[in-house]
């Protein structure tokens, strides 16, 4: 059939077949060829599909041209207009993308009503990109409009809430559509929740809701009962924050101090390439630095598994940019969360969380899905190599020279209206004081000044500083008198920075991890008097500090004296303590797996290729079975590199089942008996083998009817004919894969004979004529009738 005779449905069907075989470039060529000889009015659909394929190939400029051609053919075709915006965003042309989506919203209502889902999608994408561009008021308004149209959008509601937190738009929860305050709270992101409540039970429920909705838990982990026995334990650090980010600013020296005689470091990164000295430093500190940003979660997890990582340390948790689905594949036998998320992840595949006795007291352990690993002193590491700019004068930062300066450089979203009210009362009681805050965004600045004025405090007593380079930021701490911490989400890196620079810090500790971070630091430094447990006590202590400058000076001297000789700033000792925890966790998991291994059954998956247990039977997909992948091709990274005729790498009676799908036919006839005897040898006395192979009897019936090249069925690799079943997949052999040649074959009776001759005690073979294959089950021992019937029903019922 010529291209001019090919209808659009037929064209799309052909394209789908090419895509199924991952021939995406050929799909593009097909569409272009068809468009070159056809000019039907419905060609807009072909142009649109061409744009989609070009977008998948990251040929964004060409995709935009295809979408424009679709619009030329059909001016009211909204999906093409929307996708142009998406391609412009991919190209980094943000303003053009925003303008494109805004233009869609100006179209006549009757046109938008023809595709309400796309209308909603346009609002959400516009709001999302505006948030990325820090245009918070506009983003909030757009997302509110989206929620008014459909309030059942938890992800949109989550962003709307966090936008209000970032802008200090109090109260955070205001009437919107038909949403209740409870629904709003339940939609809050993990970070939002940490700043809303110090109730660890509520936080655990929130993370578990996220995991249930967003994470696909895998039935077949990439690692299970496994010990790689490396001479050095392989530590994999997983993060998108290996750049100028608070986590990196704390962790850099730890990476450099790890004992390379005992540990080998791998960095798995999807961080932005910010060109910073910090990023270069972290890359240099790793023994291996692997970028996984262009990999999907499955490929990223497999990449980690391929490196045989012993302990994977997630530095992300559920913070922005997290990839919890990578962890869901269980790419490492031991998985730990540390530092990135100050709370529980709720992730069932994270085994441990690094903490200390102050951070997670015994009475709160039940609200953590991970088991705490307690550092002997303080959970937090830091970087002693932090560069500090030359000292500054208060006037340079618009600070009065004679005032008492309270400061808080925590993110604005951590400031709650309740805490801000306390700050205003503190300023009321200390007339000579000012409050120095981070200018996170203009709207937050306006809202806090308005709230101050409403509380009877002159807005000028709130002084805002912009974000500056880390050395300048650190130097500014010398200009303040006391750091006022936030609650219920304490400062993490900022608290560490303030104390490192000798600035006394006043905190309020609650029940949650996030509300006890600063308290952990202060406890370790011997400054428990700066830890409060209620807002009233916090207010009273702050006023006391402001009115006793000599005491503040004593506290500053204490910090400067202890800085280089106490935890958490003794980084060599902190590194050794953390390594001790890693080793203990690894040993514990080894013992657990050893005990588990006694009850786990071992499946030898012969000729696994690129497939795993998903290509076997449902029986083998439970955690009761450990898959051992066996193949002759090292490129598929099997657990056992061996052929069916030589399994000497496996001990006698070492596996409970053997599964072989379409492997025997690739052997020569004289090799079949050797392979079957090898299967019999490695099986335990109660073991069994499942074999699937072509049924020559049903195939020969097709040949006798003259149907040698007639398509019998469609497989993922394409159309299968009788000729393919007899001699091997023709297209694959033609491509040079000689392993695909078939060298022998069976009927039901000959396969039964072969299995019995090899020594199997009981055998059953089912011929599935409609599928042209045989399913065989054979046990090593001659089972009694009841056990045999039970096994056959359990296995062959899944065919």
UniProtKB/TrEMBL annotation:
Tell me, what is one Gene Ontology molecular-function annotation carried by this entry? protein O-acetylglucosaminyltransferase activity
Keywords, ordered alphabetically: Glycosyltransferase, Methyltransferase, Repeat, TPR repeat, Transferase
For this protein, the record's SMART domains field holds: TPR
Which residue intervals define the domain Methyltransferase type in the entry?
A: 606-691
Enumerate the spans annotated as O-GlcNAc transferase C-terminal domain.
Answer: 229-386, 393-577
Q: Which family does it belong to?
A: Belongs to the glycosyltransferase 41 family. O-GlcNAc transferase subfamily.
Q: What is this protein called?
A: protein O-GlcNAc transferase
Q: Which organism is it from?
A: Thiospirillum jenense
Q: What is the lineage of its organism?
A: Bacteria, Pseudomonadati, Pseudomonadota, Gammaproteobacteria, Chromatiales
């Amino acid at each position: 059939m010529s291209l001019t005779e090919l209808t659009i449905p037929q064209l799309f069907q052909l394209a789908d077949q090419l895509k199924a075989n991952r021939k995406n470039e050929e799909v593009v060529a097909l569409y272009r060829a068809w468009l070159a000889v056809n000019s039907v009015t419905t060609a807009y659909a072909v142009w649109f599909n061409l744009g989609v394929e070009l977008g998948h190939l990251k040929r964004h400029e060409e995709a935009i041209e295809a979408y424009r051609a679709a619009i030329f053919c059909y001016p009211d075709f909204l999906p093409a207009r929307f996708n142009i915006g998406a391609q412009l965003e991919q190209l980094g042309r943000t303003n053009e993308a925003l303008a494109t989506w805004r233009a869609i919203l100006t179209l006549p209502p009757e046109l938008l009503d023809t595709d309400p889902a796309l209308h909603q999608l346009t609002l959400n994408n516009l709001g999302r990109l505006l948030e990325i561009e820090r245009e918070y008021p506009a983003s909030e308004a757009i997302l509110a409009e989206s929620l008014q149209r459909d309030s059942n959008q938890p992800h949109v509601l989550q962003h709307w809430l966090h936008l209000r937190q970032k802008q200090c738009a109090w109260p955070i929860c205001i009437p919107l559509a038909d949403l209740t305050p409870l629904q709003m709270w339940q939609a809050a992101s993990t970070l939002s929740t940490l700043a809303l409540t110090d109730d660890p039970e509520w936080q655990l429920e929130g993370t578990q809701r996220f995991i249930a909705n967003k994470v696909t838990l895998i039935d077949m982990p990439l690692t299970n009962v496994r010990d790689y026995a490396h001479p050095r334990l392989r530590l994999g650090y997983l993060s998108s924050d290996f750049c100028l980010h608070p986590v990196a600013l704390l962790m850099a020296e730890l990476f450099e101090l790890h004992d390379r005689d005992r540990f080998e470091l791998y960095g798995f990164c999807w961080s932005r390439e910010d060109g910073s000295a910090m990023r270069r430093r972290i890359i240099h500190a790793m023994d291996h630095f692997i970028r996984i940003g262009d990999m999907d979660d499955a490929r990223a997890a497999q990449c980690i598994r391929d490196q045989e990582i012993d302990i994977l340390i997630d530095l992300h948790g559920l913070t922005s940019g997290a990839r919890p689905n990578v962890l869901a594949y269980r790419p490492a036998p031991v998985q730990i969360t540390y530092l990135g998320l100050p709370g529980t992840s709720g992730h069932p595949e994270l085994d441990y969380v690094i903490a200390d006795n102050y951070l997670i007291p015994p009475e709160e352990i039940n609200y953590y899905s991970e088991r705490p690993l307690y550092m002997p002193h303080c959970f937090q590491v830091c970087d002693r190599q932090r560069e500090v700019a030359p000292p500054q004068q208060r006037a340079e930062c618009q600070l009065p020279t004679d005032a008492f300066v309270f400061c808080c450089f925590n993110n604005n979203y951590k400031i709650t209206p309740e805490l801000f009210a306390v700050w205003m009362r503190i300023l009321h009681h200390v007339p000579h004081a000012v409050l120095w805050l981070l200018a996170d965004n203009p709207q937050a600045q306006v809202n806090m000044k308005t709230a101050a004025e409403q509380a009877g405090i002159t807005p000028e007593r709130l002084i805002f500083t912009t974000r500056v380079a880390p050395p300048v930021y650190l130097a500014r701490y010398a200009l303040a008198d006391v750091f006022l911490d936030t609650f219920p989400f304490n400062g993490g890196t900022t608290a560490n920075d303030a104390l490192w620079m000798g600035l006394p810090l006043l905190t309020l500790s609650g029940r949650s991890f996030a509300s006890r971070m600063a308290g952990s630091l202060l406890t370790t430094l011997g400054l428990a008097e700066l830890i409060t447990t209620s807002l009233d006590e916090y207010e009273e202590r702050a006023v006391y500090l402001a009115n006793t400058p000599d005491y503040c000076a004593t506290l500053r001297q204490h910090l400067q004296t202890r800085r280089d000789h106490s935890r958490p700033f003794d980084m060599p000792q902190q590194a050794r303590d953390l390594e001790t925890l890693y080793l203990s966790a690894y040993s514990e998991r080894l013992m657990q797996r050893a005990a588990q291994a006694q009850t786990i059954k071992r499946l030898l998956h012969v000729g696994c290729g690129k497939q795993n247990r998903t290509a076997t039977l449902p029986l083998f997909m439970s955690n009761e079975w450990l898959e051992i992948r066996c193949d002759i091709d090292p490129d598929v990274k099997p657990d056992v590199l061996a052929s069916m005729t030589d399994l000497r790498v496996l001990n006698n009676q070492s596996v409970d089942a053997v599964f072989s799908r379409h492997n025997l036919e690739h052997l020569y006839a004289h090799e079949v008996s050797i392979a079957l005897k090898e299967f019999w040898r490695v099986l335990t006395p109660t073991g069994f083998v499942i074999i699937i192979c072509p049924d020559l009897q049903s195939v020969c019936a097709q040949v006798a009817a003259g149907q040698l090249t007639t398509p019998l069925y469609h497989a993922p690799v394409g159309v299968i004919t009788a000729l393919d079943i007899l001699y091997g997949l023709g297209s694959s052999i033609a491509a040079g894969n000689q392993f695909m040649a078939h060298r022998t074959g069976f009927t039901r009776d000959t396969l039964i004979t072969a299995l019995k001759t090899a020594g199997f005690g009981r055998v059953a073979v089912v011929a599935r004529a409609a599928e042209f294959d045989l399913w065989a089950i054979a046990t090593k021992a001659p089972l009694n009738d009841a056990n045999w019937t039970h096994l056959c029903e359990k296995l062959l019922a899944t065919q």
